[in-house]
Amino acid sequence: MTRRMQVGLSREGENAVTNEEHYRKLERMYLSAPINAYYGPTIHISAGQAQVTIPVRRELFHAADAVHGAVYFKLLDDAAFFAANSVVHDVFLLTVSFTVYFTRPISEGEMRATGRVVHRSRRLVIAEAELVDSAGREIGRGSGTFMRSSTALTSVEGYQ
Q: Quick one: CA dihedral 57, 60, 63, 64, positive or negative?
């Protein structure tokens, strides 16, 4: 095992950061996005995984008094995306495709999405995410394909 791998350093470039530093930078980047001021999420990122949680609020409901599917998509995509970007240290990823399955409505408590990387190649990362309610019951799931962009992570606002 190389010294670089023993201390958890990324392999991209001279300005390598530890994996833990990369995860915290991704968390700060996520929370600095203007849309997240509205949703009020929390996020935790680790190697190939990410967990995003938001409280259920009436403002997120559709006309039938349950959370709108757009919120399901946001949490599933965010969790899968950041799980994927946790394994890529040099550039921002882009969502190529994402499939969502709605399995149960929710109208109280909190929503927690957990994403994990299931495949990685040079150009693409595939990640899955599961969305659960406060009791741990699945309310949705999804999977996405993410590709490397030409945007350096160090140039993205919030990644500091």
A: negative
SS3 sequence of the chain: CCHHHHCCECCCCCCCCEHHHHHHHHHHHHHHCCHHHHHCCEEEEECCEEEEEEECCHHHECCCCCECHHHHHHHHHHHHHHHHHCCCCCEEEEEEEEEEEECCCCCCCEEEEEEEEEEECCCEEEEEEEEECCCCCEEEEEEEEEEEEEEEHHHCCCCC
pTM listed for this prediction: 0.90
Residue 94 lies in a domain: yes
Query: Which tens digits make up the pLDDT trace of 41-93?
Result: 999 999 999 999 999 999 999 999 999 999 999 999 999 999 999 999 999 99
| Nearest-angstrom CA–CA distance, 125 and 84 | 6
Q: How many distinct structural domains can be found in the chain?
A: 1
Residue numbers of the domain that contains 58: 3-155
- Tell me the CA end-to-end span of the chain in Å, nearest whole number: 29
100 in any annotated domain? yes
Q: Which domain CATH number covers 118?
A: 3.10.129.10
Is 160 contained in some domain? no
Is residue 88 included in any domain, yes or no? Answer: yes
